[in-house]
Design brief:
The protein is an alpha+beta fold and 381 residues long. The protein has 2 domains: 35 residues, no CATH class; 336 residues, no CATH class. It contains 10 helices and 11 strands. It has an 8-stranded antiparallel beta barrel. Strand 6 and strand 7 form a beta hairpin. Helix 1 runs antiparallel to helix 2 and helix 8 packs antiparallel against helix 10. The radius of gyration is 23 Å and the shape is globular. The two termini are 20 Å apart.
Amino acid sequence: MGCEDVRGGLAAFAAFACLAGCSPDAAEVAGSDAAPAPSHRGFVATDFTFEQPASAPNACPQGFNLDEREHYLAGLTAAERAAAVDLPQGLDYLRMMRARGRPDPCDEPKAFEDLGHLVLDGPGVAAGFDLDGVTSTRENSGPEACPHEDFSSASGAPGFDNALWRVLGCIRGYQRGSTIDEYAIENIKSGARTILIEITDLDDLRDDDDVGLGIYSSSDLLPAAADGRPLSGGSLSVTEALRFHNTARGVLKDGVLSAGPIDLRLDFKGQFLESELHLRDARVRLELTPDGGLRGLIGGYWAIEEFYDVYARQATTAGAYTVGFRCPALHSALVRAADRSPDAETGACTAVSTAFRIEAIPAFVVQPPPSTNTQASTEAF
């Protein structure tokens, strides 16, 4: 059987190998039921954004947060609102406010009154991890945390730390399929946030008590078809910036890889934004899917000022308006929701727990040529 005849299952590994040349014998071995699992698998992310749980009808009983214009109108009397029918909309409203010379509320949130931010109250349901090993309540949140209440998982497991979702859960633009999701996908398609994943030392694709995990940034563009659809099997290079090389040992059980805690850093550019994602005490849970891809969650603690800088200060008032919140209120809500890393002097927590979903397709992960690493690439599968 020649390379062009390879089909399905483990044979996909041989099919990708054929791109660089392979022998009929190699293809037949890869296609046989007795073939061993490949020792390496590589992936490139096609989705990486905040994991939003399915919204319960009563999750935000007061509705979603207001943008700047909505908030202004809400403070008027009925007669004043009727007289404000010609008030500019969209970015024209923000231009009008800037023309009046007021400070930028996203750049200087503390210069403004909070005026309230709607958050998710109560235990609730959210995706994530039990990052601190404690089923936290306001009365019992562990020695290194600030008082907070954990979520439960969709299956009812307690203790899930995702305090950032309390702040974001009642913002229109953070709902599944809305502005922030679209923004994340566009950043991936444009090459601003290319994330590579490598699983090494695989003995079995279902259960393995010791595997290697690498999560890397890349400056390469996600391979895509003419219609924009991501394509499997591309070769993408790991960045040479070592700060964005994240490695750990993990366990594979029933096709799900678990690893952590690790200190995770990724290049986090986006359109005009310059930033990095730094998750402390990060956990990883990744499922190998039947189609050869990968999906799962990455969670950890994110410094509130680092989050705010990306999603408010650098995003500017125009970004906040588009997504549907007011920066001073968001900043105050972040300070109240922070559940980790107490400041040595004030005792106020400075980091907030969060969780990102990730989906990925097979790829060849090409390592830079460091003197200590002879593994040049990771086979796609």
